[in-house]
Amino acid sequence: MEASAVRDVRGADDVTLLERLTSARESLEAEIARRVIGQRTIVEGLLTALLADGHALLVGVPGLAKTLLVSTLAQALELRFSRIQFTPDLMPTDITGTEVLEEDRSTGKRMFRFMRGPVFANVILADEINRTPPKTQAALLQAMQERAVTAAGETMLLERPFFVLATQNPIEQEGTYPLPEAQLDRFMLELRIGYPTRAEEERIAQETTGADEPEIRPVLGGEELVHLQKLVRRVPAPPSLVSHSVRLARATRPEDSDAPDVTRKYVSWGAGPRASQYLVLGAKARAAMSGRGVPNFDDVRAVAPSVLRHRVVTNFQAEADGRTTGDIVEELIQLSLKWT
């Protein structure tokens, strides 16, 4: 991005920035659609997490373009992109980096130098994150929460923006390690990718089997993206919306005095305070992407399934009755319609 464009963004008022954010959203969706057919809801979820400065977990069976979607988004953002293929033998240092011993040929002295790992990028694709043991999964914890890496006794800050997108196959269980709740809680959204429609699949079969390869043009640079993320933070959240978000998150906790019957019957552990934060931030980002300066209850309900699903732990009764976390969260969202 040209320096003049960055200066204009820095000096722009919030109204101008909001218009730029809406325009950038449309341009990003258009660029991604040049290579990825369908999945509009998933793309919207990715952009919501991106603008809210959060991370996203993409869950779907193989062949649904999860990796292609992430790499295309990185190209459209003009950011440094790293793909980490998670395998059972992957070590934490393969992610964060390691010290190597080097010799200065002029003096003959030997010294250690830290070789930065793939986590030192802007967009990280953690491909099939559940294929590596928890020890290696945990190598991302500090980076995701604090945007920093501690290695060789030194804490190094990661360059902003920093965005982790992890993929996971929900149907294969052999040789996989379920993500611990602490790791799941670091992801702002869990986005579940479904099969394309018949018309979309026919387009996929037609357009991806030819000789043409769509070229992705970068439409948004890192520094401008950081300014837009700060704008989302400045979007005002009415007290009633904050109260609604907190009440919805607390409704997932069976020990809460106001927990509904469905939660008390089927839930072992509910969502923590991060869920309340991400409901508000997600609503702000969604409103800003639509060009609105204030979020509403519909924005909260729109992001609620992706924010809450992976934070709710069901009990044996839910398994016996065939109830999933998605079912329970959807029922709580329907209950929330009566609160307004």
Structure report:
By secondary structure, the chain is α/β, with parallel strands linked by helices. The chain has 2 domains: 222 residues, P-loop containing nucleotide triphosphate hydrolases (Rossmann fold); 101 residues, Helicase, Ruva Protein, domain 3. It contains 16 helices and 11 strands. Strands 2-5-8-1-9 form a 5-stranded parallel sheet. Strands 3-4 form a two-stranded antiparallel ribbon. A hairpin with a 6-residue loop joins strand 3 and strand 4. The longest helix is centred in the N-terminal third of the chain and has 20 residues. It is globular, with a radius of gyration of 21 Å.
Keywords, separated by commas or semicolons:
five-stranded parallel sheet, disordered N terminus, 16 helices, 2 domains, two-stranded antiparallel sheet, Rossmann fold, 340 residues, alpha/beta, Helicase, Ruva Protein, domain 3
Q: Helical element count?
A: 16
Structural class estimated from helices and strands: alpha/beta
Q: What number of domains?
A: 2
| Spatial strand sequence of the major β-sheet | 2-5-8-1-9
Architecture (CATH level 2) name of the largest domain: 3-Layer(aba) Sandwich
- The tally of strands reads 11
* Mean pLDDT score: 87
Helix fraction bin = 40-55%
Q: What letter string, H or E per element, gives the SSE order?
A: HHHEHEHEEEHHEEEHEHHHHEHHEHH
Percent of residues in beta strands? 15-25%
What separation lies between the terminal Cα atoms? 44 Å
The biggest beta sheet reads: 5 strands, parallel
Q: What is the CATH superfamily classification of the largest domain? A: P-loop containing nucleotide triphosphate hydrolases
Rg from C-alpha positions? 21 Å
CATH class of the largest domain: Alpha Beta
Uncertain regions: pLDDT < 50 for 5+ in a row? 1-11
Kindly report the CATH topology of the largest domain: Rossmann fold
- Quick one: overall form? globular
